[in-house]
Design goal:
The structure holds 2 protein chains of 2 kinds. Chain A is mainly beta. Among the domains of chain A are: about 1-30; about 35-165 and about 400-455, Jelly Rolls (Sandwich), CATH 2.60.120; about 295-380, no CATH class. Chain A contains 2 helices and 34 strands. Chain A has helices at about 5-30, 465-480; strands at about 35-40, 65, 70-75, 80-85, 90-100, 105-110, 120-125, 135, 140-145, 160, 180-185, 190-195, 200-210, 215-225, 225-235, 250-255, 260-265, 270-280, 285, 290, 305-310, 310-315, 325-330, 330-335, 340-345, 355-360, 365, 370, 385, 400, 410, 415-420, 430-435, 445-455. In chain A, strands 1, 2, 3, 5, 31, 32 and 34 form a 7-stranded antiparallel beta sheet that branches. Chain A has a 5-stranded mixed beta sheet with strand order 8-9-30-10-29, with no helix packed on it. By secondary structure, chain B is mostly helical. Chain B has one domain (about 5-65). Chain B has helices at about 5-30, 40-64. In chain B, helix 1 packs antiparallel against helix 2 (about 40-65). The longest helix of chain B has 29 residues, at about 5-30. Chain B is elongated, with a radius of gyration of 15 Å. Classes of the chains: A mainly beta, B mainly alpha. The interface of A and B includes residues 1, 5 and 8 of A.
């Protein structure tokens, strides 16, 4: 039996035709004609484009969970997952289907650099704003019965910020005599002042305690609102021996228009501010207050006694001498170990600042409000920040300026949130970060059952396809060289 | 063309085209990671490879 050539040749071409189809299929996946590539992960570890959450000690293995649902549970903070970018795209939209369990606040973001320093976090979920008492308006949310224009009010009292900036209040006080306040502030601090008599006049006594031998570099930066108006860097006068450096004066004085001025003192922990002398009637420090020890400077301990509107404060000491009972209003906590953070959370609804006291000093505080050395000097320079411990009712918050968009409820406690990010054309991989502050201490969790990533670029056209190929070749060359 | 000749030619074209395709795909995956492997399940390809081997053996036996 003979097979005619007219039949045999087309058959022999079949393997080549199949190869052409295979290459064409892969090319279409890489270069979708409509410019859209969709990745869906059921969080079961099988998606080649979206990996499960890591690190493994803070999450459950992806796939079938003990309760019967399929996905992955996050139980620590922070966590992240990596995604493989399927080519040079302009943007990516990420839809997350999640269920918070005893976790009131979540933030989600992308890491922009390889070292992880350039982290951009955005609001993802805030339990308190799910209530119908709050309604969305332009630039944020306001409580029921509060005018929409409350968000444009520059009065920071009763206002909160979450991933947003507020309007600077235009404050001005009458002239006042200069007043000196002894302090023992260690390292970098931010001081907010209201001009008095049309001037800012503040002087610092600085000392390099020289525990790290040699001089240190320090800087003062002055801001009006967010605008930097002065900057001065200098080296301290510490010696090469172990003796403390001499105390030096540094004065900042200038005519000032109404507003809130911020002085950022940048230095390492070797440099102490020993006193602050200012004509400003109102000045506060925050959100960090590091009250240093007085070893080698004074024989009596420097009690940390300040007033604060912080609802939540964390305290930490690095020396055994700093172990003590710290009180914040009616709350108290014993700092019983060094290098460990101890929390103070107010449950009262007192609107005025309350006293924060650490009898032996040598302690670092970080709060969600500001600190002043006298109740009269206290003011709120800007709205407070939303944290996982924020209680909107007891804190008297009636408006929140934020970029937050409520996630869509899917029922049964599940939500869907969407985020959009611009991409670099040469990105091969993306890292997304989930922040769930306080999740461990409250025994909370966040369940994920689906992640959809939609990569977008303009549809392929006669003009654009060549640029796309050139970009792919450039990226390939970079990968080969690296 | 006899059926054996046809099978031999078909087998040759299949293997040769697969080798060319494999070289293209391996190069693509090296230069553009993620352009091939996420879309090709190697386990699913196993029956195809085994089928080609089987046909090759059968053709060899028929000739021998």
């Amino acid at each position: 039996m003979k097979i005619p050539r007219a039949i045999a040749f087309p058959f022999l071409a079949l393997p080549w035709i199949a190869c052409v189809f295979a290459v064409a299929y892969l090319a279409i996946q890489r270069f979708p004609p409509n410019g859209i590539f969709v990745v869906t992960s059921k969080m079961d570890g099988t998606s080649p484009f979206a990996n499960p959450f890591l690190p493994s000690e803070r999450v459950t293995p992806p796939g079938k969970q003990a309760e019967g649902w399929s996905g992955q549970r996050v139980m620590g903070d922070p966590t992240y997952f990596n995604a493989r970018v399927p080519g040079p795209y302009d943007t990516v939209d990420i839809d997350l289907e999640f269920k918070p369990v005893h976790q009131p606040l979540l933030e989600f973001g992308v890491v922009r650099d390889a070292t992880g320093n350039d982290l951009e976090l955005h609001p993802m979920y805030f339990e308190s704003l799910e209530s119908n008492d709050w309604r969305p308006v332009a630039d944020g949310y306001v409580r029921g019965g509060v005018s929409d224009s409350r968000l444009n009010d520059s009065n920071p009292v009763g206002m909160a910020l979450w991933d947003a900036s507020g309007t600077m209040p235009l404050l001005q006080d009458s002239p006042s005599a200069s007043r000196k306040t002894p302090v023992a502030l260690r390292g970098t601090h931010e001081i907010y002042l209201v001009p008095s008599g049309g001037r800012i006049d503040i002087a610092f006594e600085l000392q390099d305690v020289n525990r790290k031998r040699g001089t240190s570099v320090a800087a003062f930066r002055v801001f009006r609102g967010e605008e930097e108006i002065q900057r001065e860097a200098f080296t301290t006068n510490a010696s090469r021996e172990t003796a403390m450096g001499a105390i030096t004066d540094h004065r900042i004085a200038f005519d000032a228009t109404p507003g809130v001025y911020r002085i950022r003192f940048q230095a390492d922990d070797d440099v102490f501010i020993r006193s602050i002398r200012t004509t400003s009637r109102r000045w506060v420090i925050g959100p960090r207050l590091n009250v240093g020890d007085v070893v080698g400077y004074a024989t009596t301990t420097a009690t940390a006694r300040v007033w604060t509107n912080s609802r939540h404060v964390v305290a930490e000491t690095f020396h055994r001498e700093g172990l003590q009972a710290v009180t914040l209003g009616s709350e108290s906590v014993k700092v019983v170990r060094t290098h460990e953070v101890f929390r103070l959370d107010r449950k009262d609804s007192i609107p005025e600042p309350v006293k924060l006291e650490a009898p032996v000093g040598d302690i670092r505080f970080v709060g969600d409000g500001w600190f002043s050395y006298s109740p009269e000097a206290f003011f709120e320079p800007r709205p407070r920040r939303i944290t996982d411990g924020s209680n909107l009712m007891s804190e008297g918050i009636e408006a929140i300026r934020t970029s937050y968009t409520r996630p869509v409820s899917l029922g049964d406690g599940w939500y869907s949130a969407r985020f959009s990010y611009a991409l670099n054309k040469d990105s091969d991989q993306l890292r997304f970060v989930l922040s769930a502050p306080g999740i461990v201490s409250r025994g909370g969790a966040v369940d994920f059952r689906k992640i959809t990533m939609t990569y977008r670029r303009p549809p392929i056209s006669w003009n654009a396809w060549f640029d796309l190929i050139i970009q792919e070749v450039k990226n390939a060359w970079r990968r080969v060289r690296s | 063309m006899s059926p054996i000749q046809f099978l031999k030619s078909f087998l040759f074209q299949t293997i040769f085209s697969d080798v060319v395709l494999a070289m293209i795909l391996i190069s693509a995956e090296i230069f553009v990671p993620g352009s091939v492997l996420p879309f090709v399940d190697l386990v699913d390809l196993l029956p195809v490879v085994l089928g080609v081997v089987f046909v090759g053996v059968m053709v060899g036996r028929a000739e021998g």
